[in-house]
Structures are given as C-alpha cells and as structure tokens.
Amino acid sequence: MGAHDGKKVTVTYFDDEIWLSVADAFKSHLPIRNLHWKSAKGTLRNINALDIEMKRFSPDSTEKQHMMPETLLENPYLNLYFVNCDDNDAYRTVVRQKIRDWINIVTSKRNQEWLIVYVTKQETFRNAARYFNMKGTVFDKIKADFSINKRERYVQLRLSDNDGEDYESWQELMTKVKEGILISFDQHVVQYEEDIRLFDSQRNMIGWNYCRFFILKEGLALTFEAMNLYEEALVQYEELEASFSQVLKDRALAWFGSFGATDFEDDSANILDIKKKNYRDLIMQNTIPEFDFRSYLFARQCQLLGRLQRPVDICRRAQLFISTFGRAIKEQQTIVGEHFLESWIYSSCMSVVNECEELFSFTSLDDQSLMAFNAAKGELLDLARKQLDKLGIYYKHLPPSLPFTTALSEVTHPTSPILENESKRNFTITNKELNEAIENTDYQKFDLLYLSITNRALKAYEGSTRVHSSYRLSGDVAALQFHRKNYESAAQLMEDLPWRYGEQGWTVIENKVKKRCKSLEKGEDIVRPFKPMFEVSVKAMVDDITDEDGPYLAVELTNLLPISYTFDELVVHLVNSQSEGIWFGIRDQELNPGSNEYKLYSDNSASGNYVAENIHMSMGKVVFMQNFLNENKKKSFRINEHPAVLRAQIIAPNEIHVGEQQYFIAQIFTGLTNVIKGTLTLDPLSEGLTFPQTDKYQAVVKIMDHGVISNEIDSEMELNVSENNQIQLPPLQPNKLIQFKVPYDFNWNSIEHKEQIKLTVIYDRKAKSRIFTAVNTVKICLFLKMDVTLNGYIPVRILDTSLVPSKVYDVVDSPPLASPIVTVNLLDTIFISVISIQFYYLTPRDHLIEVEKFVEYNLNKLLESKNLLQHSRYLLENAKEYLLKAVDYVTYGMTDVLDLGELNIVQFSGDLKSSISFPVDVPSSKVLNTVELVISKPNDLVVGEPCHCRLVIRHSSYWDYAFQTDNNNPFEFYYDVHVDFDNWLLAGHKKLCFTSKVGETKEFPITLVPLKTGFLLVPLIRIASPSPNVFSETVYLNNAEQVLVRPRTQSATFFIEQQHRIHSIHSGSGFGGPGHHHNDSGLDDINID
C-alpha cells in the first residue's frame, strides 16, 4: 500500500525535571490497549491498541487551524503535568502557581484535556512522620486545589521496588490517560460533525465550495484513522465519493482546475501512492485537477482497506474505478494524448496487483476468500493484458485479427468534439517496461511481457472458479504461438481446448478451435500403419564387414499388393537402456510383391545392447510406421565393435606422477579404415571432471599389426583444437594407432574414483562421413599419502620401490620386505646435503589386470583362428562378468597359480608393469629454535614462594640450505609463555619481542609462583616470528616436564596447664569421668608441625 502518513495522537508533558526518570517506564506501557469509544449513534467501538507520540509542552505553540486536517492531529489530545514535591511550603509558594498557569494555557485551547501526575516513591509515601502529619500531604492539597466539576484530574504515581505495587500504580495512570484521550477525541468528532452538518446544509447557497467540504470530511476521517478506527474513516471517504459523483452529474466542477493528466509519469505512476503529489495543498487552493483528485480519493480508500487487510475489496474497487474513470479519460483523449489511456490502465492494474500480492503475503484468508482474491487479481491482470493487445496491434507486434481484436471493440472514437485546427497532444509512454516492449522492432521483448502477464492471469484464474476465462487465455496464447509460426506449441495448446469447450456445451467455440487446430496440421505427412498392405520384420544384425565399415541390420519387408513400389526411405530406430539411439536406413529401393530383404546401414557405431523401437517407410507424403515397443515380445540386438573398424578409447597412463598434472591417454585405432580427415570430441560425463583449454596436443603414431602395438614410434604430429573444443585428426592410413596425452582436472574430494568420458569421432572415408561414439570408464589413481594401501579386495604386488637421492639429501634404504603382498608403509632415513625434494618411485602389479590380459590374449587368439574376432570384446565383457568372479586373487597373488589353464606370465608381463612417482617434500625452515626453561631450584619448590627461572633460546640453521649466504642477517622473533593460571603465577613478560642471529643464544629472566602442591607441568613456551617470510621450528626441551611443589611447613609450641585440662575433661561425659586416672605432671609440651 502507499505509505501511511504515520500521524499519531499527541500527548504533551510538563515536568519538574522528573520526566527523564519515568520516561522509559512510561513508554514501556505503550501502546495503550483496550480503549472503548461510544459514538453519537450509540455504537460501541473497541480500539485494541493505540500508539501515542509524547512531546514536551510548549506554552508558545500555536493551535492548529481547524480547517487544516493534515496538521490538526498535531494538536495534543492530552496534557500531563508531572509533580514531585514533598514540601508543603514549597508547593504553596511555588508549585501551585506553576500548575495554575499551565492549566490556564491548556484550557485556552479547544478540545484539549489535562491531567496532574503526582510522582512519589513508596518509601516517602510510607514515612511515618508524613503519615501522621496533620497538615496533609502535597497530593492532598493538589486534590483540594484542582478538583473541577467533580472530575478527578489528578493521579498519584507511586514508584516502588515491588513489581506488583508498581504495576498497579502505572495501570491507574494509564487508565486516566485513556479517559483523557477518549474525552478529547469525542470532542473533536462532535465538533467536526457539527461543522460538516452546517456546511452541507449550505450546499445550495452561493459561494459554497466542494473542496472546503472535502477538507472538513477528510479531517474527520484522519481523526478516526489516528485512533485506528479505519472502518469509520473509510465511511467518510465513501460519502465523499458519493457526493463527488453528484458533482460530476451536475457538471459543477468550478472548484477544480483542468482535467489534468499532463504531468510527467501520470500514465505510469503508482496509483496507490498518495505522496507523489501535494494533493491536500492543491485541494485547499482549489486548483487540483480532476485526474489528481479522483486518483487521490481512490488511493485513500485503498490505503484504509489495506490497513483493514482486505485485498479482495481493493482489487474489486480498483477494477471498478479503472473501468469507470477510464471512460472519462477516453473522453479527454485530445488532452492527454494517444495511448495515454492504455498506459495508465496497464500501469494502474499492475500497481494494484503488485501491492495486493505484498499485502496478501501477511494476510490470512480462508479458502473462499482466497478464491475471490485470485479471481479479482486475474481480472486486473486480464485487463492489463488487453492493453497489450491494443498496443501490439498498433505497433504491428500482433495481427489485426481475432482474438486480439476483441480488445479493440472497447475503443471508440473520442466523444468530445475535435475541431479541425485542434491537434492531439504529443505523448510518450513513460512506463519503462511497457515502452521497451512496444518500441523495440524485435517482437521477442513484447512476447516475453505478453506471456508473462498472461501466465500470471492464468495462474490466478486457475486458483479460482473462473474456468472459462482460463480457457480463453489459453486460446489467446495459442493464437500468439500460431502467429509466430511456433506450430508445435500452438498445437499442444489447441489440442486440449475443443473437448473442454465441447463438454461445457459451447459448440460454436469448439468448432472454431477445431478449425484453427486443423490449420496447424497443414504440410504434415500422412502417417499410416504398415498393415494391411505390408508386413515388416527386423531380423538380425549382419556381422560381415564389407567395404562399408559400419554395422548392418537385416529387415524383411513383405508387399501384399500385386504391384511394385519405390520407397524413398526405410529407417529403423534402435535404443539402448540409456535412451540413446542409432538409426539404420536405406534409400530409393524397389519394393516388389512378396518378400523383400534389405540390409540397412548405419554411419554411427556404438557397441551395446539395443531394442528395436520403430520402423518408418516413406513414399512421398505417406509414411508407414510400426512401433515394436508395443509388442509383447521386444526384439533385442547386440552391436559389437569389429577390431578391423576404426575405434577410439580413453585409458589410464602406465606412469602416474602424483603432484604433477594428471592426464589420460587417448588413442585411436584406424583398423582397416583409410581416414581422410576427422574430428574427436571428448565430453566429460562425471561431475568435477574438466579438461583444461589448449590449442594443440602432441601425438605419436604407431603401427599396429594383428592387435600387437609396435614399441617404435612411426611419426609424431601436432593435433590442433578448434574453438568448439574439437580435436582435428589428420589423414591416417590403415593399421595405425595415434596416441596423445589429455590433461584433466578432477575434484579430489570426490568419493567416486571412476570417471566417465564420452568419445565422438566423426571421420570421412571414401567421400562418406561416419560417426563413432563410445563411453569409457577410467579409474583415477588417487594417492593422498606416501602409504600405499589397497582400495578393494584385489591385492597389489609391489615389485620394487626406490627413494631417489638428490643433490641435497642422501638416502639410506630400509631393509627389504619379507612379504611384499601386504599393505606397506615405507620409511627411509634422510641425511642432510643441500636441497629438499626428491621422487619416490613405486611399481605395482594389479592381479586383476594380469588375469584379464591372459584371458584376452588367449581368447583373441582362438577367435582369430575361427574368423570370429569381431566378437572378442563382447565375449571378453561376459568373461569378466561371469568367469573372472570365481578367481581367488589372494591365492593367486601368493602362489602365482591360476586354475584357468596355462598362465604364461613372461609372454605379456611387459604390458602389465606400471609405475607411479610422486614428490616427497622434506620440511625445511630458516631457523631452528631450541628453548629451555632453567629452574634455579627445581627440587625445592614451595607453594606460594617465587621461583626464579632463566629462559634460554638458542638459534641454528641446520635445515636451511641457504644459511651460508645470509646467516649474518638478524631475525625478529617473539616468545610466548602459555601459563596455566590455575597452577602458576607469572612475574615478568608473558610475551616479548627480540632479535637474534643464527648461532646466537638469548637468555631472559622469568619468575614463576606455584599455586598448588604436587606435580605441576612446566609452562609451555612457543617461539614464532611476526614476519610471514621467516619459517621456524621450535624444540622445547622442557616439553611435558613436571616439577614437584611441596607444601609450606611451620612449627609452634603450646603450654597447657594440667588442672585446666583435667577440669575440661571432667566436665565432659563418657571417657574421663569420676575414678579415671590422669597424668599428674604439671605441664605438657606439645609440638605441632
């Protein structure tokens, strides 16, 4: 809603310098609650809470004029005089006269109440001397002096430390405050009503002014609003609106200026903002335009409805006001300018909707009220959308046809006379959002705004019972999509509309929608099933590799007609479990009567299991189709990669250097394919896996003969990378293998260490283009420690380890491992020489890879002898899945015996070895600090006695390889003594900065005082440098050292007389009674240590 004026009921205070002592307590009882006001009509109104504004009383302040409603509320409703005087003489001579002067000033002003507050402390009130004072207290004299008309205009505020008594005293004061405010408020209301009644009775007299009548009525409304009586305030504005309607009817607009609507942003300003102009000043000056007056009157009503939390009524009144006032604006089109009305209606509707949605967010509505709010909001949004229809047609963003022209039926030519020499006002739409949408030659911004408003209206209608309105808006959106030639979107919207209108009995609309929906289908193919003219069956995959190096699919097509046909295309679509598909097709073939068999070719090869989804045969505009997924028994096929066909893969490298840039090995086998040119695209499918940007890769080409890769490099080349990250492939001859390293970045915090990469190779051979796709899973080697541990049930055989010495460090190897097939931690001894980094090499042998290589070698050898080598990969995958599960890798790892036939390790062991190297950082520091706390008497510590200590700090540069060059430069350090103050007191510097050179020894005195007995830990001491460039280590010789603290001992001698001791014992009971014998010695010496 528009910002409220924030006017509050004013209460003044006049004090004898005691307001500051009670101000906080007084404000803590605000707002005043549960006020009950009874109007002149006998209606009782309850005011739940009323906030007041406290101001200091000023005798020089002038009373605001009664005809100034916006300032009248500044006149106080109640005036308080705080008195704190316990001396009767001081009251009689000074205070009483001050109170009388204050009352004379207050009573000289109209409709202001006053109250004397006597403040006293409870102790003063209970003072016995004052209680028996026959002269009476000051408060008694105040009651006697200022009791007027039997009204108690005084109250005693007793301040007490007792919360209960203090609360009762404050409640008595607040009750008096409420009575005073209600009396003053009632006087204001009576005065306003009498003046309004008198002024209204003079309506037919000469000189009567409607604006002055409005000021009186609004003054009464503002008075009600300040007392939070919003219903009564709203009634005043409704009566003003009714009287203004009569003024319009009588054409008595002499008290107003021009029609208005000519100021900047009049068409786009928030209609609910009552502060955008000085409306009240213009009304009092009789110069307010009709446009501004009616806008202000409507905004004030909506403001009060907002305070009553009635967003439904705001939307309904807004729709009525915009519609009725819009007709008045249309009559003044020559004054306001062209398209002012459309911009004003659009801006007003959107302002009301946005404000009401904000009000709705903290308003609780029941289901019925919620539906009513959505319906009213939808009508406002729909009205705003109609303005887009009008402007869209004018600016040629929309066609001048139905349904967009329905909004134009509301527009007629101006009814006001237009003279020949009269021209329309030049007007520019100031609504930025609307102006950008219509002025832009590109219709995309207009469509975005149009669809946004329409969708909001649709959502609002769907939340109400306005079903037909939502159908209409859906049809409008479909018409827009049809006009933009988005036929697919338009058809989707149109498909649901006919039956919706049909079931409601709106047959005329149903037929029109069907006609439009039918027009969307023009130009589409005629789809028919194969039967009864044809029968089709997908037979099997063809494994033969011919001149075309792609897979083939055998399809049998039976022509049941007696004549032959030539079809344009026959295609079959296969899909896998990941919804990825491959198309097989053939073109321009003869279809003879009877059975015909065709071999369909695919230029895309991706191995895997596939299911036949559908088949299409096109003959001109007629397309025959059959869906195989609807059949009971689905037809599945296996596509295998033939070793003789080009294929690509991503593998992990044999050597991994931890701490350096990691990379994969990408390799492409040409097989029997002669590649003219091609591209390779690598797409990471795992989250966190990325490939750094580069413009080229360094590749090597090797010769591959019968599946064996030559160790010699045939040639080297650079592979350029295009802007779209496609790796350009050069011409390649058959039986070639091209390899190159692909660096990658990886989220090392990931739990999953397997990365998936999709490879797509598009290459040309014999003027034909083919596509190879594959998804490879590569295991990421992830070593975060020097410890080599197993990440699965398959053991790793450690063949060799080495810690390579550098120019700085010598290395002494640990003894050889007795049993290498375990998880190992290797520790080597390092001796200082000159520098700090060397490499640690590790060579693992994975038993799983070892067994797989053996099976793959023997299987390929067997299949090649049977001319079935194209099935090797499929069979190997099944062997891995079923056969290799039964292998006991632990037993194999310890015995090297596998129960799968002969295992010739020597034959392919060279392919199994891989090495991993990573750097080992040796810690280095510029300074090594040796710290010792020397206690003067460590064996004679007594609790509470000071112990003098020496803090000795020695510096060396043992681990600094450059110490010979800069050992003369001093370093700045500071020591910090970490004292447990429950056990020790520290006398001296707890933290102290000092400078020292390498090889120098520093001593500092420290005094410690033990506070407890027993074994106490020596305080910890830390040495550090304030400079971030100086890295130092500290060796504390007293770390975890304990010292024994003994208790303090004393000696005293006491002399006790015997008779006193005997008398004391005889006086007791039990032991030492009559007849008991005692020592007769005169004195006993007792030493107490």
Describe what you observe in this structure.
- The protein has 1089 residues and is of the alpha+beta class.
- The chain folds into seven domains: 9-192, 3-Layer(aba) Sandwich (Rossmann fold), CATH 3.40.50.10140; 202-308, no CATH class; 526-639, Immunoglobulin-like; 647-779, Immunoglobulin-like (Sandwich); 796-920, no CATH class; 927-1046, Immunoglobulin-like; 1052-1088, no CATH class.
- The protein contains 26 helices and 45 strands.
- The longest helix is centred in the N-terminal third of the chain and has 38 residues, at 163-200.
- It is flat and about 130 Å long.
- The protein starts with 8 loop residues before the first strand and ends with a strand.
- Residues 128-132, 411-422, 814-845, 901-909 and 1059-1089 have low confidence and may be disordered.
Descriptive keywords:
1089 residues, alpha+beta, Rossmann fold, Immunoglobulin-like, 7 domains, six-stranded mixed sheet, five-stranded parallel sheet, 26 helices, 32% helix, flat, disordered C terminus
